[in-house]
Amino acid sequence: MLAVVLAIAGGLVAARQQNPQQQRPPVFRGESVLVTVDAYPQRDGRIVEGLKAEDFQVFEDGKPQAVENLEFVRVEPVLSESERRDPGSVGEMLVQVADPHNRVFVVFLDQLHTTLDGSHATRRPLVDSLNRIIGERDLFGVMTQNTDPRALTFGRRLISVEEQLTKYWTWAERDRVGWDPTDPFEAMLKRCYEFKPLPGLPPWLISDNGQERYLYELLIDRRREDRTLTALERLVDRLGGMREARTVTLLVTQGWRLFREDRRIADESRHYGAQLPQVGSSGGRLTLGDQSRNAEFNADIKACQAELVKLATLDDDRRLRELTDRANRANVSFYPVNPAGLTMFDTPISQSKPPSLEEDGNRLRNRLNGMMTLAGATDGIAIVNTNDIAAGMKRIIDDVSAYYLLGYYSTNTTHDGRYRRIEVKTKTPGLNVRARRGYYAPSNKPTREVFTPAPAGSEPPKGLELALGELSRLRTSADVFVRGAMTGDRAQLAVELASSRAGISPWSNGADVQVIVTPEGGAAAAPVSAHLEAGTRGTLLTVPVAGVAAAARVVAKISAGGETVEETIEIKRSTPGLLGEAIVYRGRPAATSPLRPVADLHLRRTERIHVEWPMTGDLDQRSARLLSRNGQPLAIPVGVTERETQGRKAVAADLNLAPLSAGEYVIELTAGRGAETVVRLVAFKVLQ
Predict the structure, then answer these.
(1) Options 3.30.200.20, 2.60.40.2550, 3.40.50.150, 2.30.42.10; which CATH number does 477-576 get?
(2) What is the maximum span of the chain, computed from C-alpha positions, in angstroms?
(3) Shortest CA distance to 359 belongs to which of 135, 208, 181, 552?
(4) Residue 220 and residue 177 in contact, taking contact as beta carbons nearer than 8 Å
(5) pLDDT value at position 1?
(6) Residues of the chain with pLDDT under 50
């Protein structure tokens, strides 16, 4: 799917024109803060050129400031794709993103609120516009709701993005039958709220502003809107911490209903009552009084009930207003692009019980108003109510292709860490000036850390960066994930189908797996095969590797319904010791639920993680703890046990993920025998 796009960033090249007569050398002013402001003075939607420093008036918290230097920047991409160069490292990328001379763009593809027709309509105009926007020093990145903004990559080369938008133009999810394959919680909501836990299991229906719907359908709509707004909030916060100059966000979406708090939904939780019923399943439907799967289903119900209450109390209209305020403080401008063009109805014709015409019109207006509010309040442009997306994108190109950089030393020398408002005006009448709206002053107080500071004398464990590096190397675009290592005369390989494929046909009906191991400098060994049962993603294969010295190449293929996807990795021989390499599994919170091998180290809060390390002998000490990504212990216990599988002993760590928020974590295992002690680290990422 479109996840391929997310691991790639690209761009172009430009010629920047500067007027040296407008430059003033900066003068050091003691404790004063040098503030850089990007300004866009326009008349009739076009930048006005030729302005000088004395033509601008800058106010900070209402007090006039002297413009010390001014630079006019125009971006005109002229180079070919082969001449474009991405940053050479993450550090270089961060430096370039922070430079106010470099423009930064983010393309946010709102999968959950864009229809298939919309994703098809935007693929060509979007790539063409990026080709015309991105300049020599500009950068851009692509993300969706499933992208962690901390992992957002910025670059200049567009070729891969263009190929993937053309190949995977079916990235949109709105109005599709079923649920989002990247969010298993949607399927859980359906299991919990499709039928009421009453005799006869009647359909669990609720009124959605007069439209009769299944409760789970309404909850999924609310959850999707919450996921989108949460992703936008995190993106704004991330960008605000990366740079001070303006960031342009091209938001491809058909808008949101902007749900409000609805206590009626929260009241629906009463049907399960204080004591959860004895629930099982038969013939694909829930049954009462059946003990099978009861513990697992009751654990699901608890998670569903908590999610129901959360979704019932949403106030997304307020959140959108707060998002515009956060965006202005972070100097982020939104340019929503509605790929649906001119539309008459919000609800698809195929829906069996559509809302009234009045309600349908209200939903459509809410979506458009939300996009226009977000754009207008952040100095962007909303491309809505037009079937000519290319022409709309040209308006964005004209709007961002030239600007002024102003520099001034703040007259407020107090380092209090407070937010200071900026207002830019011109002495030239009739100009509309959009500019940076403020900044946070330096502070003499310690800066607030994203993670809890380490206690005095506490050091992150050795190997932490190496463990986290395994997460950074996971390609979100992969169709297949492979993880494994060689120990002794065999290699154990976890092969897992991407979640984006596992929930759709033909992959959901089962698949065949084949791995081929080729020793470094040697010939390929005989293939080893396995089968994925219907509804599963991963399997664990044991491959003979006697005679393989140090490393080998592994090609894993998964086939179903005439389609085949594959992935290639390199595995290395592990160092002999007390423990072998970790094998990771996922399962339901219930202890009796089956465990499935994991190669994709992204897990959900509705799951538990189970990690096993093969033992080369008995242990007399073993303990495990959970660490944050900066290596600090968290007060969440990790269970440790020993188990035996097919005559081989292993020490295992278990952790339910429900208490964790989205982010990266590390399980640290300490094991020993006599005077010998080893520490093993396994990193994983929890998704929303």
Answers:
(1) 2.60.40.2550
(2) 85
(3) 208
(4) no
(5) 42
(6) 1-30, 275-286, 289-293, 446-457
